[in-house]
C-alpha cells in the first residue's frame, strides 16, 4: 500500500509538471501570436553535439517548438541556426520566453541581440614587405596564395580590379564555401581570387521590421553599397595593381598584405545602419564551415565596451570556436582612441589591433593674412586659392541671427554667412563623413573652402569634386580662430597638397593590414596555432617606428607611447616569421583561464564539448600564457609562470634580460633556457615585488629572452595597489 501510495504521488508530481509545461507552452504560444514585444535573442548552446548540421538545426527547432507550443510558431520565431562552428540559434522571443529557455540545463546563456558599428598604398613598404625585395616574407610565402581570408563587413564590389585573379592558381582544396546570389550579384562575380561571398540580413530585418527593401540604397546581396567592406578586403588581400595614384598625388603599386591570398566576404552590416550580433555570429559560423584560415572583423561595440569575457559579446563567442579550430581571428580595437581604457574586442583568444600611422603625409599650406603659414592635411589637387575671406560662424555680439561653428551644424547657418568664403569649423566626430558633410554644407552655401579642426588621429580622405577641405588639429584650429578674432578682415590662402614621405602622419586600417600579415605567416607556418601567430607578432614588434624614431601617442597633448598605447608594438612582419620562441595556448589553457575568471564547470563543459573540472585551488589568472605580463593590484609580491615553445633552431640557449618598471623588482628563474630535440617547451617563473609604499598608476618595463639572433620581448605592466588591498582585507 505504501509503495502504491508513493507511486501515486510520483505520478501526481509528473502530472503537475506536465500541466505546468502545457500552461507555459500555451502562454508562450499566445505571446508569440500576439507579437508581445518580441526581440531577437541569441541562445548559445556551446560546442555542437553532432556533426550533421541538419540534426543540429532540427534540435534547435525542437527546443523552440517545446517552448512555443507549435511548429508554426517555432518556424516564425527562428532567425538563424548556428550549426557549424558551434551550436545555438537566434530567435524572436519575449523577455519571459527568453527567461524560460535560459533556465534549460543545456543552454549556456541567452543574450539579447546587440549592435556593432564599422571601424575604419604605402603601408607594406613601411612595414618592410616590399614586393621588390626578392627574399622576404612576402615572396617566401608566395604572397599567401593557399590562404583564405574571411572578411565580415559590408560586402564587396566584385568589379574592382583588386579582385582580379590574374596568375592565381586553383582554389585551395580545403575551401567548402561558395557565392550566394542576390540583388545585382551572382556566382559569376566570383573567381579564383574572390572565392566566396554570402550575406546575412535576417537579424537586421528582425530588429527593423519597417525596413523597406525597395527604398533602401543597399543591395540585398553580398554586393557592397557602403564601400567599407571592399576597402577592408583590399587592404588584407587585394591583388597587385601597379602605378596607381590619386589625381596627381604621388602613388605607386597598390596591393593587399597578402596579394595572392583568397578573399571570402561575409556581409553582415546593412544600410549604413551597422551590424547586429545575430548576423555577425551567423557569418562567423558559416566562415568556420567554409574553411577560412583567417577571419578579419573591423567591427566594434560602442562605449561602454563589453568586459573581455562578457557572454553578450557575439564576436568573442564566435571567435572562441574559430580559434579552437585553428582560425586566427583579427579584430579592430575600436575607434575610441586615443582616449584611455577604450580598447574593444579584448577577449584573450582574439588578435586585437589598434591603428598606427604611415610615414606619408599630404601637407597643405594655409597662409593667413598675417603671413603665418600653417600646414594642414588634405588631398587637394586643384588650383591655388588666393587670399580669400575667412570666417568662423559665431555671433559677433550685435546680431539676433544664430551662428553654428560646429562642422555638423554648418547647414543651419544662413548662406550669406559662408558665401564666397573659406569656413573654419570644429568637430569631435570620429566619422570620416564629418569632413565630407562639412565640405558639402559650405559648397552648397556658396563657400569656396573649409578648414576642419578635429582629432589629429582621425582618417584623412579627399572631398567630393576636389573641393578644398583641409584638416588641422585642435591646437592649430584654435590658432586660426584667434587670428580670425584678432582682425576685422581675416583672409587665408590655400595651396595644393604635396606628398611627403618620411614623417608619420596619415592612419591605416589596422585590422585588415594585420590580417594580411597573418595570412603570410599562415602560409609559411601551416602548423602554427592562432596563439603562436599572435605571440610571434607581439614578441618581435618594433617599439619605435621603422626608422628608429620613438612612438608618440596621438591626442592632446601628445605623449610618449607606452604598452597601453601600442600593445606589443608596431608589427615587424620579417621578424615575426622567425620569432625563435612563442608563448603558445591550447584548449587546456583556455579552460584554465575560464576557471580563473569565474565560469562554472557546467558552462565550460558545454562550451568546449567535453566534461571539465576546475582544479582546486583555482589557478591564478596571472599564469595565463599570454605574450605580456600585467599585474594590476600588486601589494607586496607575486610569482607567476610562463611557458615558451621553441620554433627556431632545435638546439638553442636563451638568456633573460629585464627592464623592470619603476619602483618594481623583477626576478626570473631560471635565467637561462635550454632547448633541444626532447626539450621543446620550457617554463620559467617571474617574481614581482614593489618598493612603493602608496598606490601608484601603471609603470612599464619589458622582459626579453635572447639567443643573440632572436629577441623575444614582452611588455611588463605593474600597478601597486596597497590601499585597495587594505580595504579589501578589512
TrEMBL record:
The Peptidase S8/S53 domain, residue ranges: 144-545
Keyword vocabulary terms for this entry: Glycoprotein, Hydrolase, Protease, Serine protease, Signal
Record's signal peptide: 1-29
One matching Pfam family: fn3_6
CDD domains: Peptidases_S8_3
Keyword Cell wall biogenesis/degradation among UniProt keywords: no
Domain of life of the organism encoding this protein: Eukaryota
InterPro entries for this protein: PA_domain, Peptidase_S8/S53_dom, Peptidase_S8/S53_dom_sf, Peptidase_S8_Ser-AS, Peptidase_S8_subtilisin-rel, Peptidases_S8_3, S8pro/Inhibitor_I9, S8pro/Inhibitor_I9_sf
Span of domain Inhibitor I9: 40-118
Listed name of the protein: Subtilisin-like protease
Species this chain originates from: Brassica cretica
Biological classification of the source: Eukaryota, Viridiplantae, Streptophyta, Embryophyta, Tracheophyta
Amino acid at each position: 500500500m505504501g509503495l502504491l501510495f508513493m507511486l501515486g504521488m510520483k505520478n501526481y508530481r509528473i502530472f503537475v509538471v506536465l500541466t505546468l509545461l502545457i500552461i507555459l507552452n500555451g502562454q508562450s504560444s499566445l505571446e508569440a501570436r500576439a507579437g508581445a514585444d518580441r526581440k531577437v535573442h541569441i541562445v548559445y548552446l556551446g560546442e555542437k553535439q553532432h556533426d550533421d548540421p541538419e540534426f543540429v538545426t532540427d534540435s534547435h527547432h525542437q527546443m523552440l517548438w517545446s517552448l512555443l507550443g507549435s511548429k508554426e510558431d517555432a518556424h516564425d520565431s527562428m532567425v538563424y541556426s548556428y550549426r557549424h562552428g558551434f551550436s545555438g540559434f537566434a530567435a524572436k522571443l519575449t523577455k519571459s520566453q527568453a527567461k524560460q529557455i535560459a533556465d534549460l540545463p543545456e543552454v549556456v546563456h541567452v543574450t539579447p541581440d546587440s549592435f556593432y558599428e564599422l571601424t575604419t598604398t604605402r603601408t607594406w613598404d613601411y612595414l618592410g614587405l616590399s614586393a621588390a625585395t626578392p627574399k622576404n616574407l612576402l615572396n617566401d610565402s608566395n604572397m599567401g596564395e593557399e590562404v583564405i581570408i574571411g572578411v565580415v563587413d559590408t560586402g564587396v564590389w566584385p568589379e574592382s580590379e583588386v579582385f582580379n585573379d590574374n596568375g592565381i592558381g586553383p582554389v585551395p582544396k580545403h575551401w567548402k564555401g561558395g557565392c550566394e546570389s542576390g540583388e545585382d550579384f551572382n556566382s559569376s562575380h566570383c573567381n579564383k581570387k574572390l572565392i566566396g561571398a554570402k550575406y546575412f540580413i535576417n537579424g537586421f530585418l528582425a530588429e527593423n521590421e519597417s525596413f523597406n527593401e525597395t527604398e533602401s540604397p543597399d543591395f540585398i546581396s553580398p554586393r557592397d553599397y557602403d564601400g567599407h567592406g571592399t576597402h577592408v578586403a583590399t587592404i588584407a588581400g587585394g591583388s597587385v595593381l601597379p602605378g596607381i595614384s590619386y589625381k596627381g598625388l604621388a602613388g605607386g603599386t597598390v596591393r593587399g598584405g597578402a596579394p595572392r591570398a583568397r578573399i571570402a566576404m561575409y556581409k553582415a552590416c546593412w544600410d549604413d545602419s551597422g551590424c547586429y550580433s545575430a548576423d555577425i555570429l551567423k557569418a562567423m559560423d558559416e566562415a568556420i564551415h567554409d574553411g577560412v584560415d583567417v577571419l578579419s572583423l573591423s567591427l566594434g561595440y560602442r562605449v561602454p565596451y563589453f568586459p573581455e569575457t562578457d557572454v553578450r559579446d557575439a564576436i568573442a563567442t564566435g571567435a572562441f570556436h574559430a580559434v579552437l579550430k585553428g582560425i586566427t581571428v583579427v579584430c579592430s580595437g575600436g575607434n575610441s582612441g586615443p582616449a584611455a581604457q577604450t580598447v574593444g574586442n579584448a577577449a584573450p583568444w582574439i588578435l586585437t589591433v589598434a591603428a598606427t600611422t604611415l610615414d606619408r603625409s599630404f601637407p597643405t599650406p594655409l597662409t593667413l593674412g598675417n603671413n603665418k603659414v600653417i600646414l594642414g592635411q588634405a588631398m587637394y589637387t586643384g588650383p591655388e586659392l588666393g587670399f580669400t575671406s575667412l570666417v568662423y560662424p559665431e555671433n559677433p555680439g550685435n546680431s539676433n541671427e544664430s551662428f553654428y561653428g560646429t562642422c555638423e551644424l554648418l547647414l543651419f547657418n544662413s548662406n550669406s554667412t559662408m558665401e564666397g568664403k573659406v569656413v573654419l569649423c570644429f568637430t569631435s566626430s570620429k566619422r570620416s563623413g564629418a569632413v565630407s558633410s562639412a565640405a558639402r554644407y559650405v559648397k552648397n552655401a556658396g563657400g569656396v573652402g573649409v578648414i576642419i579642426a578635429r582629432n589629429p588621429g582621425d582618417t584623412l580622405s579627399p572631398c567630393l569634386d576636389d573641393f578644398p577641405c583641409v584638416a588641422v588639429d585642435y591646437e592649430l584650429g584654435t590658432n586660426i580662430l584667434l587670428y580670425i578674432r584678432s582682425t576685422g578682415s581675416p583672409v587665408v590662402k590655400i595651396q595644393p597638397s604635396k606628398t611627403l614621405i618620411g614623417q608619420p602622419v596619415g592612419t591605416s586600417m589596422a585590422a585588415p593590414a594585420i590580417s594580411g600579415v597573418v595570412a603570410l605567416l599562415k602560409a609559411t607556418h601551416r602548423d602554427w596555432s592562432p596563439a603562436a601567430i599572435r605571440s610571434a607578432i607581439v614578441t618581435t614588434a618594433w617599439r619605435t617606428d621603422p626608422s628608429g624614431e620613438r612612438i608618440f601617442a596621438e591626442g592632446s597633448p601628445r605623449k610618449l607611447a607606452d604598452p597601453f598605447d601600442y600593445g606589443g608594438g608596431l608589427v615587424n612582419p620579417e621578424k615575426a616569421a622567425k620569432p625563435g620562441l612563442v608563448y603558445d595556448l591550447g584548449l587546456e589553457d583556455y579552460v584554465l583561464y575560464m576557471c580563473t575568471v569565474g565560469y562554472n564547470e557546467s558552462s565550460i563543459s558545454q562550451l568546449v564539448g567535453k566534461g571539465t573540472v576546475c582544479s582546486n585551488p583555482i589557478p591564478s589568472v596571472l599564469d595565463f600564457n599570454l605574450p605580456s605580463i600585467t599585474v594590476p593590484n600588486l601589494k607586496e609580491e607575486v610569482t607567476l609562470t610562463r611557458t615558451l615553445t621553441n620554433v627556431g633552431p632545435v638546439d638553442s640557449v636563451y638568456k633573460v634580460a629585464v627592464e623592470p618598471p619603476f619602483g618594481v623588482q623583477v626576478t626570473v628563474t631560471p635565467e637561462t633556457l635550454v632547448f633541444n630535440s626532447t626539450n621543446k617547451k620550457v617554463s620559467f617563473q617571474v617574481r614581482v615585488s614593489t618598493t612603493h609604499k602608496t598606490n601608484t598608476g601603471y609603470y612599464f618595463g619589458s622582459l626579453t629572452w635572447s639567443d643573440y639572433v632572436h629577441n623575444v620581448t614582452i611588455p611588463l605592466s605593474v600597478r601597486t595597489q596597497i590601499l585597495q588591498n587594505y580595504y579589501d582585507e578589512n
